[in-house]
Amino acid sequence: MFHGSIVAIVTPFKKGKVDEKAFGELIDFHLRSGTHGIVPCGTTGESATLSHEEHKRVVELAVKMAGGRIPVIAGTGSNSTEEAIAFTRHAKAAGAAGALLITPYYNKPTQEGLYQHYKAVAKGVDLPLVLYNIPGRTGVNMLPATVARLMEFDNIIGIKEGTGSLQQISDLVQLCGERLVILSGDDFTALPTMAVGGKGVISVTANIAPADMAQMIEAAERGDYGRAKKLHDQLYPLHQVMFVETNPIPVKAALALMGKCADEVRLPLWRMSDENFKKLKAALKRYGLLKKM
């Protein structure tokens, strides 16, 4: 159902408020560039510091602005199961094609707790659900055996796998087969994930280089790994600089340099250090992204 280069889109701010005009322009940028899907209100979208009203508004805007041309997979995860269900119900009502649900963070559930959490969401909302496993952010690793148990629920259709472990991804392929859509959770492992059975990536780098990310995944999909590897190597310096500080600090700074939105993140995030900003600007210049300013 979901595949390709799916952007984990930023939430642009202007003077502390969601910049709806810039958000619409970013979505148009992705539609023109061949991006295969949009995830609003994920980690890159600073969901943790959006109010409930802002969260719902951003999802509604993404659905409206995408206009059915590419799928919108709304970030609806929470460390409260009831809140996750409520956000997922809203995403369905707003017209999202699916929902992305991060594993509950901070409270560190057991594997049984994770199973029961996702079971409750799956039974509570009839919408395609993509699990999101990123232990570095949440403090808990959802094991492949737990994911396999969740395959009994037809609307759990995929996973964004952010461990960076090809062994864990391969275990998912072995246990779940074609039943599970596996999407890489980080840009560095997008191509290797495709090679072992993945269907794409939910990408940070796609915010600034959407066409090249889309073309890399498309090349891998058609089995042209020579072309895909060339694009992977070309994009790699951007992947590196996108994570020189906590995401989404660098990607928002990059978009500001490209004239796409303001360089504004919400506390407790803060603007880039001068040293890292110089590295970012140099990488964007080498890639040619600042020529369009």
UniProtKB/TrEMBL annotation:
Enzyme Commission number, as recorded: 4.3.3.7
Catalytic activity: L-aspartate 4-semialdehyde + pyruvate = (2S,4S)-4-hydroxy-2,3,4,5-tetrahydrodipicolinate + H2O + H(+)
Chain sites annotated for binding pyruvate: T44, I202
Pathway: Amino-acid biosynthesis; L-lysine biosynthesis via DAP pathway; (S)-tetrahydrodipicolinate from L-aspartate: step 3/4
Domain of life from the UniProt record: Bacteria
Enzyme class: lyase
UniProt keyword annotation of Cytoplasm present: yes
Keyword check for Lyase: yes
Subcellular location: Cytoplasm
A single MF term (Gene Ontology): 4-hydroxy-tetrahydrodipicolinate synthase activity
Site feature: L-lysine inhibitor binding: A48, N79, E83, Y105, Y106
Site (Part of a proton relay during catalysis): T43, Y106
InterPro entries on file: Aldolase_TIM, DapA, DapA-like, Schiff_base-form_aldolases_CS
GO biological process: diaminopimelate biosynthetic process; lysine biosynthetic process via diaminopimelate
SUPFAM superfamilies: Aldolase
Subunit structure: Homotetramer; dimer of dimers.
Official protein name in the record: 4-hydroxy-tetrahydrodipicolinate synthase
The species this protein was found in: Candidatus Manganitrophus noduliformans
Protein encoded by which gene: dapA
